[in-house]
Amino acid sequence: MKNDIVTPVGTSAGPHRARTRRRLTLSATVALLALALAASLVAAVGLGPVSIPFGEVWAIIAGAVWPDAADAAAGALNGPLATIVLDIRLPRVLLGAVVGAGLAVTGAVLQAVLRNPLADPYLIGASSGASLGAVLALLSGASWFGVLSLPLSAFAGAMATFSTVVLLARRGGQLATTRLILSGVAVAALTEAVTSFIVLTSPQAQLRSALFWTLGGLSGTQWRDLWVPAAVVACAAAWFWVRAGLLNALVLGEEGATSLGVEVNRVRWRLIVAGAVTVGAVVSVSGGIGFVALMVPHAARMLVGGDNRWVLPLSTFGGALLLVWVDVGARLLNQPDEIPIGVITAVLGAPFFLVLLARADRRSLS
Fold it and tell me: Which domain holds residue 308?
């Protein structure tokens, strides 16, 4: 089925000129957000206990990426600042952008598939399962796969809990969204309780690292941590964008989507599995980071309406931008220690959640 046969949700069938003007405006919005993200990546690398000017950061990165620029940046590339930029901060900032993009685009997809504006990766059990897998690996000292043991354990935990949620949600071979949400909440609560019990009964020496991981963070990121989640998020985001028209159809409800020729159950299964894999990949390297998948898609819809052809790219870039700056705050607000990223996103997300509830109440009364 081609995406263009599905009428986008939230758009009006106005004159061609008005549609063209709107399309150009939305394209400009996405392009500006992408430019803001690019500038933020460079700026964020320069911020930390040792402040590095924007121009110098750019010279070091340009010298490392483009050999023709190496002569102009030869001095900087051989200094201690180059080590800070290239080996410590740049992989961390890039991973923050990848994690934020993955969480936000998955949140947008789940909210459309489940037709629930409060849906996020915790509803499918992936985030809580990844935390449990990682904590077990940390506290058991598992090292079967060397440096990959922790992310692989977290990914395995995410997939195990997601599989459990899906099995509980199935009814007659069909995926019931209400059962999926309720099963996800129950499995996530049980998984988090087990994780908390393990952490509380763990040796004191390992307690801090396990607790910090469950709250989310990017401390100690290395280049090897970046490539797998970056590849997964890039492929998933592109795959989701291609299917934005199908998402628009699913928002209409099962009957409406079926009338448009959409195989609802099969499409829903594929999108949710892809979302679970994406979340498992990013949470396996960052820990549990809440509210990004809830806040960013809502903000995107406030800007561009309900058409997922625009919500998805805006959520991707917006999630990346948000987590890059949240990570900067995590580094700077409590020097020389760091604040877990999940703590900051919870401080930002809880009021946002309450505002959403208040708006929903006003709509129900009107």
Answer: 3-365
